[in-house]
Amino acid sequence: MNTNHIIITEPQTKEQFEAYYLTRYETLRKPWNQPLGSEKDDQENDCIHIMAIKENLDVAGVCRLQFNSSSEAQLRYMGVKENTQGSGIGRKLIEYAESRAKEKGAGIIILQARETAVDFYKKCGYSIVEKSYLMWNEIQHYLMKKILNN
Q1: Number of domains in the chain
Q2: Which residues contact 44 (CB under 8 A, 6 or more apart)?
């Protein structure tokens, strides 16, 4: 897939947010038989939502940027549709999120990576801090971080 035709944006309309949350559910919850609604938490209104849109307006990937403090941002709910993985969409989402984090004054960004995504995040400049938690008794996560150069 050519990522030149991918637009990284923040959802604005009700329809865009519906497509954004549906992609989050389909990539991060549905494969593990989690209920619809489990893709959201109580911090949604305080975060920056980011989505990758293809030429045909389909959402290819999503992520959320939240701020844990004035200096620390956290990348959460990162999901790229399986048929577009490996095409650079995830990297574009991260670059956009890091740019927005820097704009807001964050000097560090952290994330909880699923074991299968650790190598991807390492390629994006993140390093493992520690093995963290096991989600649903089967998905190992690792706390990772990156210092943002302003």
Answers
A1: 1
A2: 64
